[in-house]
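#help-structures

NK: newbie question. if I give both the sequence and a SMILES, will the prediction place the ligand too? trying with zinc ion
OV: yes, paste both and it writes out the complex. here, I ran yours:
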Amino acid sequence: MTKTKVTVTWIKELIRNGDTSPFYNTKEWGALSERKRRLEHYECERCRVRGIYKQGRIVHHKKYLRLYPELALDINNLECLCDDCHNDEHHKQTQLNEERW
Ligand SMILES: [Zn+2]
Ligand SMILES: [Zn+2]
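OV: that's the protein plus ligand as C-alpha cells.
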C-alpha cells in the first residue's frame, strides 16, 4: 500500500486497528524525522542536557501519536533520542501502553 498523503483520519484509523507502523513507513515521516535528526546533529537531546554526547537515532513524539494524532507531523512535537532515553520514556508508562515509539 502506497500512501501519498498522511491524514489525521488515516492515523486515527491505524490507531483503531492497533498498528501504527504504516505511519512510520511513510515518506512524510521518513523525511520529517530525518530533518529532525539533522537539526539535532544526530545527538540525543536528553543526554545533551546532561552534558553527555550520545547518538540520537530515534525520533520520538513528545505528545504520543496515539493520543495526539493531529501532532504526528509537527516538528515541535518531536524529540531526537538515544535508545536508552527512549526506553526510559516508554517504561515510565504503564505496561498496557502498546505504543511502539
Ligand atoms: Zn539519551
Ligand atoms: Zn517514543
